[in-house]
Write a structure and sequence with these properties.
Structural class: alpha+beta
Radius of gyration: 13 Å
Helix content: 25-40%
Largest sheet: 4 strands, mixed
Oligomer: single chain
Length: about 100
């Protein structure tokens, strides 16, 4: 069974903002960023438990961190019975854990 992808609204907003930022730097780079994100999402669909657990994470749900090729970003997500929930499209140098308030606890 293929897991459904869900996104926190703030994650969706930060993805769009990052793509705009890249496109402002170079025309078409925002599309390349979206393509790299799509590749990371496809890897999550295919192997949802393959990404490492977010460093130091010991809480439930287990938050995983999938690297995005070429760009300094990670897709942070957790699994449910029927879906994976994207919490953040996080720039690697951004303050760690800024997204934790997005968890449904």
């Amino acid at each position: 069974m293929r897991l459904e992808k869900r996104e926190h609204p703030e994650a969706r907003d930060e993805l769009r903002e990052a793509a705009f930022w890249y496109d402002d730097r170079e025309s078409g780079l925002g599309d390349d960023f979206y393509d790299a994100i799509d590749d990371a999402i496809a890897r999550i669909h295919d192997w949802p438990r393959s990404a490492p657990v977010f460093p130091g994470w010991v809480d439930t749900p287990t938050v995983r961190s999938m690297a995005v090729a070429v760009f300094p970003y990670r897709v942070l997500y957790y699994l449910t019975d029927s879906s994976f929930v994207v919490l953040a499209y996080a720039r690697e140098r951004r303050k760690p854990g800024y997204w934790q308030h997005r968890l449904d606890r």
